[in-house]
Amino acid sequence: MKIAIPLANGKLCMHFGHCEFFALVDVDRDAGRIMGREDLAPPPHEPGLLPPWLAERGANMVIAGGMGQRAQELFARSGISVIVGAPAGSPESLVGEYLAGTLATGENACDH
Question: What angle do CA 38, 41, 45 make, to 5 degrees?
Fold first, then answer.
């Protein structure tokens, strides 16, 4: 499994489309552990571009603070599940909490 997390200043970026980097975190779900991480600069923001871009890089899940409904639908079409409302933590802490079943999510930080 590969989880994509949008980053700003090394932590989860609350507005998905305006992140500086994406952390792509390789996970062994059976072992419940992180196998590796790669940070990539995204292409310039254009509506609909990020779902296929992340899918091409093997992502099958996104953990986000906020994401618009249309973007969520585009990710679903690309076979990528989305978790929204995550707090602004480090990629390792967010993925660790997800694997432990303790990732606390709140409201979607995006209103469009």
Answer: 140
- Structure tokens given for 14: 């609350």
CATH-assigned architecture of domain 2-100:
2-Layer Sandwich (3.30)
Domain coordinates in residue numbering, the chain: 2-100
Kindly tell me the sign of the dihedral angle through the C-alpha atoms of 91, 97, 98, 102: negative
pLDDT band at 109 (very low <50, low <70, confident <90, very high): low
This prediction has a pTM of 0.93
- Spatial neighbors of 35 by CB under 8 A, at least 6 apart, are 26, 27, 28
